[in-house]
């Protein structure tokens, strides 16, 4: 029903933009948290034998046989607190910038049907390039849900207390980063695009404009395109 | 003719949904099994020199030079029976959930021409992420066909008796998982989508609906497409 | 002009199908050979320093510092002659089967604009999975052109005489494989598809049929799109 | 506003083709340089802890713990000056050839909405296959911006003086390569395509031709699509 909102930081940003009602934010976030918790439980069930084989039955947060980072994220040894906060802000800001660009009707938007795989590639790219510092959570629900699961499944309170109570960073930094990315998008891109109601620039005529001038031949074309799937 | 049904678990799920006739299920499954057997024979012919070079001519199921797992799947040493059954149920259920979402006309469906490569990416993703436990068969034909081939090609009856007659798991678990995934899709997604015959929700007007009204309502469809992320 | 024919085995198959004139086959093949030779020369120029650094200035076909396989393909030590011939026949046959399926108007064809990247992925997939045996040339021009270049650039006649004059295998086997793949496509798929001029099967009504219904201007556009590979 | 011009060598080539006004070239290049400098500063901020941990606080251009090549490009030890110049010319020429083919209306053009990801794959492919020699900058702004950043951030003047003042190669070679690639495209492809105003070749009838027949509204749409990269 929500169009696959999976990230509280992204949902908050869309609330700020007025594209999602504020009243829906808390239910969305709780659903996301619940989904992440249930998914962690499923991973634990399917890989229980493998986790026990690897850890020798001792579920820990530190050490060469630690298994907590299968679920929640933890910072690298060399990271300072401020740096890991910045890391999460920048990662989520980049995610939000990319998502907003994809749907901009006045620029060249990505085809609607391809947005899900493109967002998947963006998240994969950010995860691959930015997980070195502190695991690239860039999503409070994806981090807190699994962390709560490990708390209840035998890893103990260390999942919250470790690294000097670091767990709050992937909860607080991503929403800040998402909103900052949204404002950077508005300031540097959105407000420089031509007004869709008064196209005064022929060479930059937006697609959505053209589509609204449907002589009769248009409709046919669209029908073909749309009926091909 | 069948639209490339390659997996008995998927075919069974479509029978349950009423999208494939029950009478076609057995012929489909036998064809899938035959196809997997013939493909295994071709792999064996092309890589005969490499297999003989690697195994030293001794075709075995266990040990560092085993070659049976090139064809059928076998569980990791640490897996218990129930866990490997669960692994196959979850893997096939996820596959079925993804396949059904791709074609849902009342949500944003994937373009029909792109469904084959998208399904290939899904199968690749499940194979890469879930093969650690017991090889990610998630397809009875893909597992039994090659296993029968290795039985007839010199690996002996050990391909069936090994790991305490484990071979029945990838035959029985995937169909159960596929049907469970189908019901989860119906319960959690399908039955919550707006009724296609009585569209009472403008903002969620389905594409298939709009397509049936090909006069001037086109414009709506196009705007719909653009607003679908 | 040719629609990017780069492989003599593929061009020959299209001649057999009657989609390319026989008189064009020899000019196409010579162009393909010339292109592969020139591309090899460019690679040699750009990587001259790297090749000299790696080989110590001694350009050889055998040994740990051999550099000949950068250009042409050579079989693995364990391969027998017949097996490597089969390997090339199967690889090229699979390539041809995939290419013909992509453009089949009476099945779900791939979008014409996406055929180039899809063919690139197919060639990449075959190269990755089948190069273990003997380098996955599956293209006489891609193999003979670079081999002729290495002959003239200092590797000597060993590039032709090595492995008991093996060089003829990637020249002769791919065309045979391509034509065999084409006939397998005709026998197992093409001849089972409904006749586009007499649609007698409602549930399997082909896309090209449906497209012909809307109006006269459509057909031109659609046929154009479908004939673009 | 510029349609995502990120590379001075590409912008220069489009000026030569008359598709971008010459007066815009210098502002574009300065923006590209500024963008690369700011992006380098952001990378430095986010990875400051990791860089300090790896380098031990000693920011150098040479040696096993060098960190300068995170930002700008440097040649491999074995490269001669002329060879690295050729490497950059060939890499940028290939990039320009690919970009121009994608938008050719008289051949099969790539869909306008997919050009951004396709160009990303091309740049990724060239970076992966050609970075062995000297880092595959193929973009003066992407190289000079980060180099200026490292100069100001503590790596010292060695980033410019190292390898015998090599830094000018990725500044001068890419524009030459881009323009050479453009002329090769014009000579070998563009001038051989049928004249769009006088179609005399039925079997090779170009898409843009056919599209102009249906009705007046078509043309706008197609030109719009084609002009979007």
Description:
Chains A, B, C, D: The chain crosses the membrane at residues 25-47, 165-188. Chains A, B, C, D: It holds the Pfam family MIP. Chains A, B, C, D: GO terms for molecular function: glycerol channel activity; urea transmembrane transporter activity; water channel activity. The structure is a homotetramer of 229-residue chains. Chain A is mainly α and 229 residues long. Helix content of chain A is 62%, strand content 0%. Residues 199-229 of chain A have low confidence and may be disordered. The interface between A and B is medium-sized, with 34 and 36 residues.
CATH superfamily of chain A: Glycerol uptake facilitator protein
Q: Write the element-wise H/E pattern of chain A from the N-terminal end onward.
A: HHHHHHHHHH
Shape descriptor of chain A: elongated
Count structural domains of chain A: 1
Computed Rg of chain A? 22 Å
Number of helices of chain A: 10
**Low-confidence regions of chain A:** 199-229
CATH architecture of chain A: Up-down Bundle
**Largest interface (CB < 8 Å):** A-B, 34 and 36 residues
For this entry, what is the oligomeric state of its chains? Answer: homotetramer
N- to C-terminal distance of chain A: 22 Å
Helix- and strand-based class of chain A? mainly alpha
What is the percent of helical residues of chain A? 55-70%
| Number of extended strands of chain A | 0
The proportion of residues in beta strands of chain A is: under 5%
Major β-sheet annotation of chain A: none
Classified by CATH, the class of chain A is Mainly Alpha
Mean pLDDT across every amino acid position of chain A = 82
CATH fold group of chain A: Glycerol uptake facilitator protein
GO molecular function, one term (chains A, B, C, D): urea transmembrane transporter activity
InterPro entries (chains A, B, C, D): Aquaporin-like, MIP, MIP/Aquaporin, MIP_CS
Catalytic activity (chains A, B, C, D): urea(in) = urea(out); glycerol(in) = glycerol(out); H2O(in) = H2O(out)
Membrane topology (chains A, B, C, D): Multi-pass membrane protein
């Amino acid at each position: 029903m929500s169009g696959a909102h999976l990230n509280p930081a992204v949902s908050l940003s869309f609330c700020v933009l007025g594209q999602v009602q504020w009243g829906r934010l808390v239910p969305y976030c709780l659903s996301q948290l619940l989904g992440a918790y249930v998914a962690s439980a499923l991973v634990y069930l399917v890989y229980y034998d493998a986790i026990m084989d690897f850890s020798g039955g001792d579920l820990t947060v530190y050490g060469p046989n630690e298994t907590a980072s299968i679920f929640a994220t933890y910072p690298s040894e060399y990271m300072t607190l401020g740096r890991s906060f910045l890391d999460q802000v920048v990662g989520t800001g980049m995610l939000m910038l990319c998502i907003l660009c994809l749907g901009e009707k006045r620029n060249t938007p990505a085809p609607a049907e391809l947005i899900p795989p493109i967002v998947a590639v963006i998240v994969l790219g950010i995860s691959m390039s930015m997980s070195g510092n502190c695991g690239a959570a860039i999503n409070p629900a994806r981090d807190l849900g699994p962390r709560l699961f490990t708390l209840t499944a035998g890893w103990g309170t260390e999942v919250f207390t470790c690294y000097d109570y670091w767990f709050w960073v992937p909860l607080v930094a991503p929403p800040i980063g998402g909103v900052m990315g949204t404002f950077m998008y508005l300031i540097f891109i959105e407000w420089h695009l031509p007004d869709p109601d008064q196209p005064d620039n022929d060479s930059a005529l937006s697609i959505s404009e053209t589509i609204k001038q449907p002589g009769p031949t248009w409709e046919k074309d669209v029908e073909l395109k749309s009926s091909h799937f």
